[in-house]
Amino acid sequence: MAHSLFDPIEDIKLPEEKPKRSWKWLLMTVGAVVLAAGLGIGGYFGYYAMFPKKLTERPIPRNMEQLLVELKSARDQIDSQTRDVYGRIQQFNKTMEVLHRKPVSFSQVFTQGLSAEEEQALDDLVRNEKDPSYRGILGQVVEDMKKIRDLT
Predict the structure, then answer these.
(1) Reported pTM
(2) What's phi and psi for 140, nearest 5 deg?
(3) Last residue of a domain, which of 32, 52, 72?
């Protein structure tokens, strides 16, 4: 049936308006994915920063300079940890002196494969407050070699 311009408009049905699109769910989903990816990547690098791989598990360095940098870093870590152990023993021994108990000797911690004479030499170094690290002992060896050379 044809409609004229003069027909009443109440019975003409217009299509319902579509509601505005809500982008909130899309933005929340994208945000969650980006957050999860960021945490995953950050966690990966954070884990290896906190717990680095052993030297033998790392990729082989491409040149000698990279190898020397790795080895120097490892040696510095060993020296630092040795100083920390030495400091901790000193803290404990100060407490033992106050309580009049037997102190712990440095050689008790580092006695793997040392003879009694070597243990005594290590304890003497520590007692004289010399550096018990690898670098400190090597410096002492060089100094002793110079003394021996001067005597001959």
Answers:
(1) 0.49
(2) -65, -40
(3) 52
